[in-house]
Amino acid sequence: MKGPHPGREFPGNIMRSLSCGITCVILAWGLSVSALAAPGSATRAPEEVASTQAVVPSAGIPADASGANHAGARAGHAAHGDVHADAAGSHTDHGGGAAGDHHGSGHGDGEMHHPGLQWPWVSHAAVALAAIVIWCLFAPPMDTPNRSIDLGTLPGIGRVVRFATRSPYPLLAVRIVSVAVFVLVIATGLFGSAYPERNFATAFVWNLWWPLVVVSVLFVGTAWCAVCPWDALAGWIVRRRLWRRVSPHPGFNLKVPPYLRNVWLALLMFMGLTWLELGANVTGIPFATAIMASEMLFLSLIFLLLFERKAFCRYACPVGRTLGCYSRVAPVSVRPVEQGRCDGCTTLECYNGSAQIEPCPAHLTVGRFSQNTYCISCGNCMLSCPHKNVTWRLRPMGSEAGDRARPQLDETWFMLALLGITSFHGLTMMPFWSEWVAAIAGAIGDGGRHFASFTLAMLGGFAFPALIYAAAIGLLRLILPRGASYRKLFAAFPFVALPLAFVYHLAHNMDHLLREGGDALSTAANPFGTDLEPLSAADRHQQMMSVPIPDEWLFTVQAALMVLGFFLAVQIARQRGLNSLGNGDRVTGWRLLPVLGFIIAITAMNLALMSHDMTMRF
Question: What is the value of pTM for the model shown?
Answer without folding.
Answer: 0.84
